[in-house]
Design brief:
With about 425 residues, this protein is of the alpha/beta class. It has two domains: about 240 residues, Probable inorganic polyphosphate/atp-NAD kinase, domain 1 (Rossmann fold); about 160 residues. The protein contains 15 helices and 17 strands. The strands form four sheets. A seven-stranded mixed β-sheet has the order 11-10-9-12-14-16-17, sandwiched between helices. A hairpin with a 2-residue loop joins strand 16 and strand 17. Helix 6 crosses helix 7, helix 10 crosses helix 11 and helix 12 packs parallel to helix 13. The protein starts with 14 loop residues before the first strand and ends with a strand.
Length: about 425
């Protein structure tokens, strides 16, 4: 399918009101009094994140991720959202596709879904690998069906035809793009963040927040939520893996927006902040302890620290430094655990995603729950310019590690290095 870019025309929030539409008037009418939730799960979304592959698109990337020990997390994140919705006691019928595309997680969360479509005849991962290599691979979590973008698009069309009031999907920006192609703005959509790349403004801030938004929207009389247009962004994955970001606006989806629960689009850097970035880098370097290991996450702010050290930076990956020397580049979760285990003291240095406020769970999944627990909350160094913090308009910094208990422990207040000799106390979490 040929996709034509859409001219942006949207402010920094990444959303714009849908003219003449609000949740109360346009939300679930429920011809029979029952609200219908359409569910789509991209089971392999985000599988490349923790192992440093910076994406999950394509069978070869999937194979490489599994060979590195990756675990598919999208189904679990979808289930977290559904369990949150179930606890709301909303009277909801779930309509979905078979097996791993939604049925399994809906049943696990306590729903009895109506299942459309078919995955019969689809190749399983094991069968595919046997066919191409002649030997049985080691697969974490068992065999699974290789679903495609065509499956996602057909599922979205089927759900729209079934008259669902809201589509809840688990995936990344590629999944959002597929749904945009299939249904456009005909059905409200909210995403469960489960991909490596999550630049679009069509996601909840966390899986639990996605369940809360769905519950709010599917009430008889929705309160605290309004329909807006959210940007659908996507990037070139090959360029992404080569440390080049080439993001493009592909269209808009109609999104239930609830302040503090719906994610904004990722904002780019602000020109003319070189001095502020250099001051932050100077402050971080001045505080580096002899013999300690420093794990620097993705981003241009952390890149400035590496540049001041005279070291190369993997712009979209995690690098390790000790005593001013590079000890590891573009590291995966396993590499970080190994280095931290061998180090008497380890620090993580991360920056804030502009416009969104995330410090963990967006583009830096290598900092997994296991890594964060190993390093400890007190050894996380957050760096950001005052301009980037001001762009959040008072919204808190966000963590979405996939582990709600750890997210709670990381919440509270953090000292953010904002200038030379300057730290700002900023709220983390809702």
């Amino acid at each position: 399918m040929t996709r034509r870019p859409v001219e942006p025309g949207v402010g920094g929030s990444g959303v714009r009101p849908s003219a003449g539409r609000d949740a109360a008037a346009d939300g679930a009418a429920g011809r029979d009094g029952v609200k219908r939730l359409g569910l789509i799960v991209n089971p392999c979304a985000g599988v490349g994140g923790r192992v440093g592959l910076k994406g999950s698109d394509g069978a070869e990337v999937l194979r490489a991720a599994l060979e590195r020990g990756a675990v598919r997390d999208a189904p679990r994140r979808a289930r977290l959202a559904l369990e949150r919705l179930a606890r709301s006691r909303a009277h909801v019928e779930v309509v979905t596709w078979p097996g791993e595309m939604g049925e399994d997680e809906a049943r696990a969360a306590g729903f009895s879904p109506r299942v459309l479509g078919s995955l019969q005849g689809r190749t399983s991962y094991v069968a595919w690998e046997l066919e191409r290599s002649g030997k049985r691979p080691v697969v974490t979590g068992g065999d699974f069906v290789l679903t495609t973008a065509d499956d996602t698009e057909q599922a979205a069309r089927d759900l729209a035809a079934a008259g669902v009031d809201l589509i809840l999907f688990a995936g990344g920006d590629g999944t959002a793009r597929n749904i945009c192609d299939a249904v456009g703005d005909r059905v409200p959509v909210i995403g469960v963040p489960a991909g490596v790349k999550i630049h679009s403004a069509v996601y909840a801030t966390t899986p639990a927040a996605a369940g809360d938004i769905a519950a709010l929207f599917l009430q008889e009389r929705p309160v605290g939520v309004q329909l807006r247009e959210g940007e659908v962004m996507d990037i070139d994955e090959q360029a992404f893996r080569e440390d080049r970001v080439s993001a493009q606006l592909y269209g808009f989806l109609t999104v239930p927006y609830a302040r503090g629960l719906t994610q904004s689009a990722k904002a780019g850097g602000v020109a003319g902040e070189e001095r502020a970035l250099n001051d932050i880098a100077t402050e971080v370097i001045a505080g580096m302890e002899p013999g300690a290991l420093y794990l620097l996450g993705p981003g241009t702010t952390t890149r400035t620290v590496m540049q001041r050290l005279g070291l190369p930076k993997t712009l979209l990956g995690v690098d390790a430094v000790r005593d001013g020397r590079l000890v590891g580049a573009d590291l995966a979760e396993g590499d970080l655990l190994e280095l931290a285990a061998a180090s008497p003291k380890t620090y993580i240095v991360v920056t804030v995603i502009g416009g969104q406020g995330h410090i963990f769970g967006r583009g830096n999944q290598q900092f997994s729950p296991a890594v964060l627990r190993r390093v400890g909350r007190d050894h996380v160094i957050v760096i950001a310019t005052q301009t980037k913090l001001l762009s959040l308009e008072g919204r808190p910094l966000l963590v979405d590690t996939g582990d709600p208990g750890l997210d709670a422990k990381l919440s509270g207040y953090a000292k953010v290095v904002t200038a030379l000799g300057e730290r700002t106390m900023y709220k983390v979490g809702g």
